[in-house]
Amino acid sequence: MSDNRYTLGLDYGTNSVRALIVNAANGREVATAVWNYSHGTNGVILSRDPNLARQHPADYVSGAESTIKKALATARRTVRGFKPEQIIGIGVDTTGSTPLPVDALGRPLALDRRFAKDPTPEALADQIERLLTGNYAGWDVDDFEMQGIRDSQLQDLHRRCMSVGLPEEWPKLSDEQKNQLRDIIVELRELGDARKQGQAVN
Known about the structure:
Blueprint (H helix, E strand, L loop, with lengths): L5 E7 L3 E8 L5 E8 L8 E2 L6 E2 L2 H22 L8 E8 L26 H13 L4 H9 L5 H13 L10 H27 L1
Parallel strand pairs: 1-6
Antiparallel strand pairs: 1-2, 2-3, 4-5
Helix pairs in contact: 2-5, 4-5
């Protein structure tokens, strides 16, 4: 193994994450990699506010894993004797300062089902109605797309909604597609009524 030492940089942008490995002694670039975020539109979860864009927490994790592996593989191919152990520092740069709470293993808490609380059928129906009419706040799209639902019936109805199209596109859907969503709203309200009646009996 050579005596060279290297640094690894991660740059989280609006649409992608980039990795860069450079020689710490002379700043020479030895490897790069790019991974485009997989969620949203071109990696961005849009809202009605043109100045607001969000990314999915899972994309940060997947992006780091993908670009680091690719950059290390490139460095091994292009630099004789390169070993990952020669990397002595890691720098991270982002386009924003939004904190991302993680657990002891570095996993985003937003993806941990222990922190997920199922919405009621009525609340889910209300969300769909707001998104369908276009009368919603920017975070409503995020809340609907990323909520971790454990209830199997609600999971199925949520999946059916997402199969119609992305929530931010719902106001522009065809009448037939909108009717599919309206049918789901009816099912949710009926499910909520049935559950209330079951609780009253018990």
